[in-house]
Every structure is written in C-alpha cells, then in structure tokens.
Amino acid sequence: MKIKEIIQAIESFAPLQYQESYDNAGLLFGDASREVTNVLLTLDATEEVIDEAIARGCNLVVAHHPIVFGGLKKITGSNYVERVAIKAIRHEVAVYAAHTNLDNVRNGVCAEMAARLGLDHCRVLQPKKGLLKKLYTFVPEADAEKVRVALFEAGAGHIGQYSECSYNGAGEGTFKAGAGTDPYVGKVGERHFEKETKLEVIFPLYLEGRVISALLSSHPYEEVAYDIVNLDNTYNEVGSGLVGELPADMDELEFLRLVKERFGAGCVKYTNLRGKKVRKVALCGGAGSFLLKRAIGAGADVYISSDFKYHEFFDADNQIVIADIGHFESEQFTVELFYHILTEKFRNFAPLKSTIKTNPVNYL
C-alpha cells in the first residue's frame, strides 16, 4: 500500500475542500508515492511522536493538528516546528494532517464527542454554504436509467440522509450532425428530433471531476450537453459544531460531572448554572467560542468546547451554560476516528495509535 492510498481514504471521508481558508491540512512532508511501512495516529505531530514513529517502524504519521500552520521561511531547528520538519525528513517519515476538514464533516470530530455523551438526533450547528453544485443533462429516454445509476455511483444525488435523488422531466431535443460525426441516432446533415429526459442531480463540489467522468462514460451521445450550476444552498452535512439531545434530562452539576469523567478532563471551567435541567447539548472540538451565539440560538442548555477567554464567559448571559473542557480533551478521540476510517477501508491493515500524550497543558 502506498501513502497516497491512506491519504485518499482519509480525504474521501473528509475532503480537503472542506477545510477553513486559514488551515494547512494535507501532506506536509514526504512522498505520497512511497510504500507504507505502517501508520502512527496522533493528535499532534510532536518531536516525541516522530521519535515514536521511527522506533515503531512507521513511515507515515497522521495527525489532527498541522505541525506547519503558518509559513516556514527557514528550517534551522530553532524551534519545535523546525526540529520536527528536520527529523521527519531526515528519517523519511511522512507527516499528514486532517484538521478543519475533519472538524467540518458531520460524522467527524464533533460526532466523536457526541458519541461519548450518548447524544441523539445530532445536526450540524453552523452548516456551510457554497459547497454544492447541480448538474443538468439531457439523455435519450431509453438510456436515462443507465446514466442516472452512473451518476449515483459517482456520489451525486444525496440530499441529507436521502440518496439517489434526482429530478426527471420529459422533453424533445433537436440536433443536426455535421460532417465527420458519428451520431448515436439520426443522420448526418439532417435535423433530428429525439425524445429525451432532462436529468438533474445535486453533488458536493469536490466530486465534480468524478461526476462529469461518470456522465461522459455512460452517456450514449458523441457530444454530451450538460450544465453545472453553483448553488448557494446550505449544506447541512458540513459545517462547524453539533447539537443533539441526551436520552433523558439531567441535573446541571450531574451533567458537568459526566462531561468531566467522559473526557478525562483535568478540570471543567463553567459559567453560572441556570437551575434548569439539561437535555439539549451543543459542542465543538477545539476553540469553539465563535459558535456560542449559534448554540444559544439552537436552544442548547449547555455548550461544550474549549479555549474561551475570560470575557467570553460573560457572553453566556444566563442563556446557556458554557463548559470549557480544554482543547486536547475535546479532540483527543480524533485518533479513534482516524483508526475507524482506515480499518473500515483497509480490513487487513492495523494502524498504530500513538502512546504519547501530547497535551501541553497540565493540572494540579
């Protein structure tokens, strides 16, 4: 197996197109065409993790946080980022990161958090726009099902939890085949009328190449007529945070104790309690203060995230309870997510989980 196959498996789950504009997900060091010896999964690609990869015979480290986040102008070993780069390159250890793209998929990092609390009926807290496209094409009636199936197999036609969604309208097309053509129907030099189906399907933008390829390979016409339109629709499967419901109401302190235990948090920083039962819970892995208004708007009783600043706790304004559990604590189960993605795709492959706790924060 090659490194690029591991990358393809992760990016089919969390496409790079879903990362935020400030992010630096993807292959950071290494040659994607090299054979994989083994893979080490981690939250952070620290120096200790690179040493562990070398010791355990892994030539690929898959991390959540990109060790190179801003630009590197020099690589002299003057800081931990440069030292990781030097060591990884010297020992031919490739380093790959799936960061906000993995945060933004509905069944990604936040879903791992929600699973630890047993939340039901989860939905994306802040869905994204501009990630969907629509294909319109025109197919002879007798061939419409063949083309339709090909488009579905390429990943088109998903709306929420529904698949194989399309719209089909009957009509009549015309064309005149020119000299040197080989028309599927009709004759060269004569206008032809053909009963056709207008076929419409939605697809996420990262699948455009695959969808067009499926269309062209399955369509019987020599020249295929089609239109692709950018949609401004909200894509409810991709975005920041999740909101869901507990199976039963809980007292606030009882719930916060559960959160502390399930996430192994050194402490939980929280705002004033409201004296209400907890049922609806919003959450976001990593630094999630930007979603507080969304969590309040969604009617959540508690919002679990990390990295809140002092004055941001005031913004709860007795409308919600903020529970700051720590950055590492909120994202630690990403390693389990990586493991699940890779073992589901490659049944006879066993990636290794790092034994290094990379949390830079300690508690007394």
TrEMBL record:
A divalent metal cation 2 binds at H64. GO terms for molecular function: metal ion binding. Keywords: Metal-binding. A divalent metal cation 1 binds at H65, D103, H327, E331. GO terms for cellular component: cytoplasm. Homohexamer. Belongs to the GTP cyclohydrolase I type 2/NIF3 family. This is GTP cyclohydrolase 1 type 2 homolog.
